[in-house]
């Protein structure tokens, strides 16, 4: 898929290249909201260090990891694992550690591992760099739509960020499970770093396209709230993670999303006066509740917030 060829962000700083880079981002956002970026300004050493602390955490004995076990609540946090093989429904095959990183008042350090020793410092530095990258991307995305650079950032309200360390161990029967079943991300924008192939994006009619693992690249995907804010101009694509029988795959996923009490509405500038908005307005909390109530099978959750529109699939 042409859009998965990494987009070189360094071109944004070069007058001769910037408009082409912006156009590549706009095209990917319109197509399915999935793209890869290189030369994004996040130091490679910091990316490598994050992978190292993540790997060291997952390599700890199970009982040491369980000290950080989370409780299944609306805003989950902490360590967990779900490894299920069945002949029927796609299930999970993964271990994970989820941490809230922003706002600072939501950092619950009781879930942050004390081993390895450099864990906290590395995660703090990495997530700060990724927040900055998210803001840069959102400003390009807003401007591509003819909106002011801070439009989407402001439309999402107070900055919320979390990071999920995903670990997909080798699976004896990879055809009978998935690392993560198909979903679209529910927040605003997701920036993912992967180690090993396994991420796939929906390519229509139950077919999946592998998102190749490029060294030092990030995978960026737009999530449901941006689909709503852009009134469907930009898509939040279904994706999933598959597993394999011979190696552990890991990924490091930073999510940027609105506060629960933030009202999300389609940008009036992007609403056709004759047709009206294609999504109803909502508070982000309602979205979390809809998620907790269960996703409609084979449908993107965002479709249940769509109105007036035979066009949204
Ligand atoms: C996610 C996700 C894919 C992966 O965490 O939402 O889609 O490859 N992860 O880990
Ligand atoms: Ni996802």
What does this structure look like?
The chain is α+β, with helices and mostly antiparallel strands. The protein contains seven helices and 14 strands. Strands 1-2-10-7-12-5-4-3 form an eight-stranded mixed β-sheet. Strands 6-11-8-9 form a four-stranded antiparallel β-sheet, with no helix packed on it. It has a two-stranded antiparallel sheet with strand order 13-14. Strand 1 (7-8), helix 1 and strand 2 (34-38) form a beta-alpha-beta unit. The relative contact order is 0.15. The model has no long low-confidence stretch (mean pLDDT 91). The structure holds N-oxalylglycine and nickel (II) ion (NI).
List the helices and strands and how they pair.
Blueprint lengths: L6 E2 L6 H17 L2 E5 L5 H15 L3 H5 L11 E6 L9 E10 L16 H26 L6 H5 L4 E9 L11 E4 L5 E7 L3 E4 L5 E3 L7 E5 L1 H6 L9 E3 L7 E9 L5 E2 L17 E2 H9 L21
Parallel strand pairs: 1-2
Antiparallel strand pairs: 2-10, 3-4, 4-5, 5-12, 6-11, 7-10, 7-12, 8-9, 8-11, 13-14
Nickel (II) ion binds next to loops.
Comma- or semicolon-separated keywords:
23% strand, alpha+beta, 313 residues, binds nickel (II) ion, eight-stranded mixed β-sheet, four-stranded antiparallel β-sheet, single chain, binds N-oxalylglycine
Question: How many E strands?
Answer: 14
Walk across the major sheet and give the strand order.
1-2-10-7-12-5-4-3
Helical coverage, percent range: 25-40%
Q: How do the SSEs run, as a string of H and E?
A: EHEHHEEHHEEEEEEHEEEEH
- Whole-Å distance between the termini? 20 Å
Main beta sheet strand tally, sense and closure: 8 strands, mixed
> Which overall shape is indicated by the principal axes computed on the Cα atoms?
globular
In DSSP terms, counting alpha (H) and pi (I) runs of 4 or more, how many helices?
7
Question: What's the Cα radius of gyration?
Answer: 19 Å
Low-pLDDT segments, ≥5 res: none
Mean of residue pLDDT values: 91
Bound molecules: N-oxalylglycine, nickel (II) ion
